[in-house]
Amino acid sequence: MVTSEREVRVGVLLFDDVEVLDAGGPFEVFSTAGRLARTPDDRPAVVCTTVAATTAPIVARGGLRFLPDHDLAGAPALDVLVVPGGVTAAVERDPAVIRWLAERHGAAELTLGVCTGAFLLAEAGVLDGRPATTHWADEDELATRWPAVEVRREPRWVDDGDVVTSAGISAGIDASLHVVARLFGPDLAAATAHRMEYAWRSTP
């Protein structure tokens, strides 16, 4: 058990046709880290929540249903904003969500984009002039549609300070563990991966 002086609040954006592991992988990493790291008064050091445009059920790719904790207006302050991918076309055209992403990125300590979540961050202007990555099958589209983004085609994730982006689907788990290592140290990240029985690639 690790004792942490800080509590980190993580929020995962949900939307219809979100990729299940893009959202669930980071949620599992951060919630597991919260079980292993406790505050001095024995609360989880990481608290996870989910946010969507409304609190109506979300139907992910493959049909899995999620029930968001908060709508955009009711979302609490977040230290880490997680933006998963999936089929993002409808969300890209939703000005309320895009505006919320830009605002919450500015207020958060760190934003993590998983897979085509990079498309949503690019649409919000978060990736302008920054290096970023996405699923290998979507790299060309990211580069073509948002030429201000410096698309990196090899790494499993790209860390650009307050923005981390990952390649596709399972790569979001590796990137999330990297974020845990940044926030709490590599020992907690390794312990989290071990608890999950996950072979963490700790370098991009």
Gross morphology: globular
The main β sheet shows up as: 7 strands, mixed
Strand order of the largest sheet: 7-4-2-8-9-13-12
By CATH, the topology is Rossmann fold
Cα-to-Cα separation, first versus last residue: 27 Å
- Summing up helix and strand content along with how strands pair, one would put the structural category as alpha/beta
Number of H/I helices: 7
Average of pLDDT: 97
Question: Unreliable segments (pLDDT under 50, ≥5 consecutive)?
Answer: none
Count all strands and give the number: 13
Percent helix: 25-40%
CATH superfamily: Class I glutamine amidotransferase (GATase) domain
Topology summary:
Elements: E1 2-3, E2 8-13, H1 20-36, E3 37-38, E4 46-52, E5 58-59, E6 65-66, E7 70-71, E8 80-83, H2 89-92, H3 95-107, E9 110-114, H4 117-123, E10 131-132, H5 139-145, E11 150-151, E12 157-159, E13 163-166, H6 171-184, H7 186-195
Parallel strand pairs: 1-3, 2-4, 2-8, 4-7, 8-9, 9-13, 10-11
Antiparallel strand pairs: 5-6, 12-13
Helix pairs in contact: 1-6, 1-7, 6-7
